[in-house]
Please model this.
Amino acid sequence: MLKVSVIISTYNKSDFLEKVLWGYSNQTYTNFEILIADDGSSQDHQSKNKSNLLLNNLKYQYVYHNDDGFRKCRILNQAILQSKGEYLIFSDGDCIPDQDFVKKHVLLAEKNKFLSGGHIPLSKKNSSSVSKNDIISQQVFKKSFLFKKGEKISKKYLKLIKNSFIASILDKVTITKPTFNGNNSSAWKKDILEVNGFDERMKYGGLDCEMGYRLNNLGIKGKQIRHQCSPLHLYHDRPYKNDLDRKANRVIRLETISSKKTFTNHGIEQTQ
Model:
């Protein structure tokens, strides 16, 4: 069985991560470890996170650095270095996976490809009320259940189609480009290392897409799986979001595209 490492970013959201870990405790594919990439959570949140990992009997590593602003790229790079799997799945501590989430990434993985998944946003009300039983029973991943809970009917629920053939067709015909999305993407570890991981100059806003562009330049192309594999995304505010950082990130992304570079000098190597 393919050895997989699931890298999950988090910061002071132990209540959200608890729900996410319920999802990983219920996976049909079990040959995986979890790496929590903690961007400086308080001691209280760290303790709750580790307790929930143990309660759910999950194989894990806890990767942490002190809080010094938004440094998600750096903690992700540290987690990549410590990962034991040959295949890496990236997600966030606010994304609840269904029971086949890891299995789907494994089955759809291809040489010279990275997988580009989607997500399904939940309302603020349902994000706070979703229970362990809702997740373990898988009813929270059913359209009928979510509509009864007041979620608005939307095309986003096409991502919950259970027929794998229809879902694969939708992924082939969608006009959405397969970008590297930090909340649901995967790649071979050797490919991630070859492009030197995430660019640590980048703050919030397209930081994951930029690494995907370097993978593209290397010949590792994106494969769309948004209709075949999408976790539920819990609602939250983003106080770290600002125009200055987004503009700086855009300059880096455009330079990566125009120069066709495959390697960043501001990535994993400098963390060694």
